[in-house]
Amino acid sequence: MKITLLVNGAASSVTARTRVMIRKTLSHHHDVTVATTSRRGHASRLARGAAAKGTDVVVTLGGDGTLNEAANGLAGTGCALAALPGGSTNVFARTMHTPDDPVVAAQEVLEAIDRGSLRRVGLPSVNGRYFLFHAGLGFDAAVVEQVEKRSWLKRYAGHPLFIWAGFSTWVHHYDKSRPRMSFEYGDGTGVHDVYLGVVLNTDPYTYLGSKPLSIDPEATIDTSLSTVGVRTMQFRPMMRLVGHLVKGNGRLIEDPLVEHRRDVADLVVRGHGPFPYQLDGDHLGDTEELTFTWRPDVLTLVVP
């Protein structure tokens, strides 16, 4: 079988020794080629090129951003995608129950490939770009923007950096005085006073250290989307919602100040002016409109 090991050498957990050990593991009975990313968007091109050359599986070693780019390169092809944890959080790899150690994970991925443990799944698309686990709209994306401005720190202080960025964004970098967007659903209904939003393809939403932060436990990769719109940014209600998020008890989506729907296949988010957004932890700038569509049977995953 032909395997491409797609490596982001700048990712926070990737070392030369790790790359060598993973290639050696995957090369057992398989033809392995290593490709290394050098800039933003490069992983999509490398993955698409690998699929065009008849590669059977692309294995990514990097963070969630690298994995998202690879998924976009492979969507609609027959080439499978496997995730090894190489970033600071590795949300999707952990959601797929991949071990945190990338060398151990490579062995499990190899065993899954050898037994044919593959799954064809649907993916959500937003303005033509796919994402794997979530899209963050408004405040969530503003936090990611502050982290990316200090990306050199992620290798040394990944999760503390996110916590600091959350507080800094709350105080200095986000307009909390007014609603920022409207949610308009495919059935013609909607809400128009959303301050921040999250669109989930899986759960948990993210991890804080080893702790999963769950918003909707019923959001899975086998269903369409779960949408969450927070209709306030007053301090006390927000601290209540943060408490529910940390406890992971599923009560966040039951709060009266939260607009929540499941099994959403189509959603248009219209801004009351520009708002920031991110996909799978990758900040993509400001926009005034996003069109979400869940598309079935898009991508083949290797399932450890």
What is the CATH topology of the largest domain? Tumour Suppressor Smad4
Secondary-structure element string:
EHEHEHEHHEEEHHEEEEEEHEEE
Low-confidence stretches: none
Please give the domain count. 2
- Count of helical stretches: 8
Roughly what percent helix?
25-40%
Spatial shape: globular
List keywords for this structure.
14-stranded mixed sheet, 31% helix, 16 strands, 2 domains, Tumour Suppressor Smad4, Rossmann fold, 304 residues, alpha+beta
Report on the structure:
- The protein has 304 residues and is an alpha+beta fold.
- It has two domains: 2-116, 3-Layer(aba) Sandwich (Rossmann fold); 130-295, Tumour Suppressor Smad4.
- 31% of the residues lie in helices and 36% in strands.
- It is built from eight helices and 16 strands.
- The protein has helices at 16-26, 42-52, 64-74, 91-95, 102-114, 139-148, 154-173, 235-247, and strands at 2-7, 31-36, 57-62, 80-85, 118-126, 129-130, 134-137, 181-185, 190-194, 196-200, 206-208, 211-213, 225-230, 258-264, 266-279, 282-302.
- The strands form two sheets. Strands 1, 2, 3, 4, 5, 6, 7, 8, 9, 10, 13, 14, 15 and 16 form a 14-stranded mixed β-sheet that branches. It has a two-stranded antiparallel ribbon with strand order 11-12.
- β8 and β9 (190-194) form a beta hairpin.
- The chain is globular and about 60 Å long.
- The two termini are 17 Å apart.
- The mean pLDDT is 92.
